[in-house]
């Protein structure tokens, strides 16, 4: 009897051990199936992942160095985020052109939620019907060839003023960066608002502040599960201050345009529409698949302003820097310019277009020095 109990116990123990081993193998197989087949990448540390490998230099320089070691498709863990880094023309074309729809999703970053009206601008909006409609409005209504051509006189006046200012300062030191930014600001302001704004001293550092908080790595975006992190880091309060200041200026601009439109309707006076007028008209009469709110308009205006000032002036600044570093390219560029350089007779649009078509320094600058070298 005792031997029978021992035998039964051994059978039961063997059965339990067999079941345990089968379950473990099944679990291991299931876990293996769920594990993503990630590209190669550097070894990571607990909690922070590969964040430490982005310190000590500009982020896009560090990413370039890491990609040279691990390949054009590289995996990084940035805090809690699994990140795939694409760093070759061939793979970039596959991601951004061939399979664009599959990679069109944008993460909801803190800067988009706070500053850009809950991610309702073009740059931070999630891919979907709203984004497609907004992009269509931008292409067909705001940035169409006809609309851009209507602002030609504004561009020529401001560029002529810049040339005259530089010419009058011959032999003395000038702050070209500031002058280029001012020209870009004036052109964008006049195209968007019909006139120069008196808030330049406030709006320029405001735009630069927005770019600063939006361009870098925000620690709260890398650890989204830690809800208190935006407050602890002080980033939320900083972004909210920037948003409130921008909203105050944009609200004033929209109110002015609505009042001007009401006055124009009562006096039957016809004035050329600026970009804000176009957006307000679309809000009232546009055949859109969504309701274009005032906050949506503010978000789009902020997008246009940042793109029209900081991006444009940055490219021009880099172009001048490259020309000064390479005198032979400078000489070639000078020979390509029209013979008559008098500001009042210079067709800047045609001259710039011809220069770009010849693929000279102006054409290559955005490739060498992209305003946003790291895109998400």
Automatic annotation (TrEMBL):
* Pfam families per UniProt: p450
The UniProt keyword set, sorted, is:
Heme, Iron, Membrane, Metal-binding, Oxidoreductase, Transmembrane, Transmembrane helix
Q: Where are the transmembrane segments?
A: 6-26
**Keyword rRNA-binding annotated:** no
Q: Which InterPro entries match?
A: Cyt_P450, Cyt_P450_E_grp-I, Cyt_P450_sf
Has keyword Heme?
Answer: yes
Which is one GO molecular function term here? heme binding
The similarity comment for this entry is: Belongs to the cytochrome P450 family.
Specify the protein name.
Cytochrome P450 71D11-like
Which organism is the protein's source?
A: Populus alba x Populus x berolinensis
- What taxonomic lineage is listed for the species of origin? Eukaryota, Viridiplantae, Streptophyta, Embryophyta, Tracheophyta
């Amino acid at each position: 009897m005792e031997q029978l109990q021992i035998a039964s116990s051994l059978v039961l123990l063997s059965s339990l051990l067999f079941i345990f081993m089968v379950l473990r193998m099944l679990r291991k197989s299931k876990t293996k199936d769920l594990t993503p087949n990630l590209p190669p990448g550097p070894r990571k540390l607990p909690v922070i992942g590969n964040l430490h490998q982005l310190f000590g230099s500009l982020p896009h320089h560090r990413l370039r160095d890491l990609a040279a070691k691990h390949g054009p498709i590289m995996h990084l863990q940035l805090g809690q985020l699994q990140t795939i880094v694409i760093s070759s023309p061939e793979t970039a074309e596959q991601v951004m052109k061939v399979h664009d729809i599959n990679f069109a999703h944008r993460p909801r970053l803190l800067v988009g939620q706070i500053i850009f009206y809950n991610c309702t601008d073009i740059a931070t909006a999630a891919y979907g019907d709203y984004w497609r409609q907004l992009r269509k409005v931008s292409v067909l209504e705001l940035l169409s060839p006809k609309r851009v051509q209507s602002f030609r006189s504004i561009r020529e006046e401001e560029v002529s003023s810049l040339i005259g200012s530089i010419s009058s300062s011959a032999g003395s030191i000038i702050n070209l960066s500031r002058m280029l930014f001012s020209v870009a600001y004036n052109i964008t302001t006049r195209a968007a608002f019909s006139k120069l704004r008196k808030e330049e001293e406030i709006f320029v550092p405001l735009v630069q502040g927005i770019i600063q908080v939006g361009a870098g790595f925000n620690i709260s975006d890398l650890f989204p599960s830690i809800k208190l992190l935006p407050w602890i880091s002080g980033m939320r309060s900083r972004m909210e201050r920037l948003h409130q200041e921008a909203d105050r200026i944009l609200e004033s601009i929209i109110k002015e345009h609505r009042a001007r439109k009401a006055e124009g309707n009562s006096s039957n006076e016809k004035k050329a529409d600026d970009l804000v007028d176009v957006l307000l008209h679309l809000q009232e009469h546009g055949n859109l698949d969504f309701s274009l709110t005032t906050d949506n308009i503010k978000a789009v205006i902020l997008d246009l302003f940042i793109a029209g000032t900081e991006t444009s002036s940055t490219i021009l600044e880099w172009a001048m820097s490259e020309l000064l570093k390479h005198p032979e390219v400078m000489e070639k560029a000078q020979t390509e310019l029209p013979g008559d350089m008098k500001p009042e007779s210079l067709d800047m649009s045609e001259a710039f277009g011809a220069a770009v078509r010849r693929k000279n320094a102006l054409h290559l600058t955005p490739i060498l020095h992209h305003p946003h070298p790291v895109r998400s």
